[in-house]
Amino acid sequence: MPTARWVRIWHRRLGLTAAAFVLLLSVTGILLNHTSSLDLDNRNIETAWILDWYGIAGIDETARAFELGDLTVSWAGGWLFVGETPLIGSVGTLQGAVALDDLIVLSTPREIVLATKEGELVERFLPVAFGGEITSLGSSDGRVAARVGGKIFAANEDGSVWKLIQTSDEAISWSVGAPIPSELVPAMNAHLRGEGLPLYRIILDLHSGKFFGNLGVWIMDGAAVLLLILSISGIWIWWPRAS
Question: pLDDT tens digits for 180-223?
């Protein structure tokens, strides 16, 4: 096959491949050039799958809730919630919750959390006597109990002092986790995901390929090389005719 014909064939094939990248770069480039007039910085995207793609997670399958009568205490995305109200963040998980008069007692693996039923933090601490991680929280005869390893501890009336007790698991009514109630999901997701992502950020990441991760950057680099090859082959095809 003559060299000129071979170059023309591959020039067309590469041109079709590059068309998608040219279209993407052109559209995103035009939008980025008019960021201010289009107000892209102040337009936020809250679409769930896009936020998930960026690692801005909302409620997922690891979330759990504990029902305390008419009140629901939940954990999702590292946050504890009392009803729809965020209580504290940077929490590994929620091991249990028990109502105690006007307070609620919650346990994470490493601490006891006391809060009001209105969602105000009262205190958080790890009783010295525990000496390990809390695995369960429950109640018995009006007292809050916690399982730590193979031992069971019970709290005083206000939940501030804990002592080792001799009892069986069957004597404790352990709190049991359940899925997050659907009516709480919107407010909790709004807190976990904030205001979403600026539209400008998404368009910029599409333009650079970062939207698709490290592979996307390399693909866009490959597209740039492809355009260089098309430029060179186009000049090569045109040059004999021009001369």
Answer: 999 999 899 888 888 778 888 888 888 888 888 888 778 777 77
**Helix 3-33 crosses helix 199-208 at what angle (to 10 degrees)?**
160
For the chain, give the number of residues.
243
What residues contact 94, with CB distance under 8 A and at least 6 apart?
64, 66, 73, 74, 75, 80, 106, 107, 108, 177
Helix, coil or strand: residue 177 = coil
pLDDT digits (tens, 9 = 90+) for 36-58: 888 888 888 878 788 888 877 78
Q: Residue with structure tokens 């064939």? A: 9
Could you tell me the two tokens for 148?
A: 């730590």
Position 242 scores a pLDDT of: 47
What long-range pairs does 114-117 form, CB within 8 A, spacing at least 24?
A: 114/158, 114/159, 114/160, 115/82, 115/87, 117/71, 117/82
Predicted TM-score (pTM) above 0.70: no
Closest CA to 198 of 29, 32, 40, 10: 40
Q: Is 227 buried (19+), middle (13-18) or exposed (0-12) by CB count in 10 A?
A: middle
The angle formed by the CA atoms of residues 61, 177 and 122, to the nearest 5 degrees, is 105
